[in-house]
Amino acid sequence: MRIAVTGSIATDHLMTFPGRFADQLVGDQLHTVSLSFLVDNLDVRRGGVGANICFGMGQLGTRPVLVGAAGADFDEYRAWLDRHGVDTGSVRISEVLHTARFVCTTDADHNQIGSFYTGAMSEARQIELKKVADRVGGLDLVLIGADDPEAMLRHTEECKTRSIPFAADFSQQIARMSGDDIRTLLDGATYLFSNEYEKGLIESKTGWTDEEILGKVGHRITTLGSRGVRIEQAGQDAIEVGCAEEEAKVDPTGVGDAFRAGFLSGLSWGVSLERAAQIGCMLATLVIETLGTQEYTLRRAHFMDRFTKAYGHEAAAEVRTHIA
Hints:
Elements: E1 3-6, E2 10-16, E3 41-47, H1 49-59, E4 65-67, E5 69-70, H2 75-83, E6 92-93, E7 100-106, E8 112-117, H3 129-136, E9 141-144, H4 149-161, E10 166-168, H5 179-186, E11 191-195, H6 196-206, H7 210-214, E12 219-223, E13 229-232, E14 239-241, H8 255-269, H9 273-288, H10 300-311, H11 313-323
Parallel strand pairs: 1-4, 1-9, 2-7, 5-6, 9-10, 10-11, 11-12
Antiparallel strand pairs: 2-3, 7-8, 12-13, 13-14
Helix pairs in contact: 1-8, 5-6, 8-9, 9-10, 10-11
């Protein structure tokens, strides 16, 4: 399968302030705050849901097509993704805006002050999927991830018009979307991804019941945190897959993106939904053990040893030929 992933491309600029924000605030002067914090360190990390998912798929060797918008400052990030098996040929480069950026300072009490600059992400709505499909020789599935909301709607409508199977994955954008937009984005999706909280929010905003939504999508995939994932299909028994045992819990950021990367890779290999979910859960476990969303290394022998321990020899035999 040739899979394209549409979604945000961003960098995170994370700083640490050794003191407490509260000690710097004057109660009767909060209407005119003017503060500057001398921070100890700066950690720049690659991120964005589209890029995170593609990085994981690239680690598994499935050569995904990243579709999104970035700025002229994207060259180094592009080289990183290219080296890790991602097709970046369909990334739009803005002539006037920088790549989206999250800037955050954390104090000694773990309070945070942050800002998100959307930047070039706002131009993702100008990307036409037909041009992407023509460049790579056709698309078998498009995952429509969190991005510029107008881009998400345009990509969804184009998939429907051109009969391209698509997966709906609102994640961070669901909070700002209306019920009408959510109904448009999920109706007709081959796969609908969400976590448990987002599942309830989707039902609340659309006014559709769980059963009604199952009638409008091919498969509903709900991540359950430490309990793994549940896959539902109308008229079928649910499939539930648990998480692989983690060696450490370092940073949960990007775990959902890693699950999607593994699951989509499984689909591209043609394995069962259960096996695809197991691959996703195993990759997610590697991410939670690592600081950063794209800082893990997939060592195939190590991956298969842990996969076998978690899901058994029969499952491992089906997956090994693709991982190796």
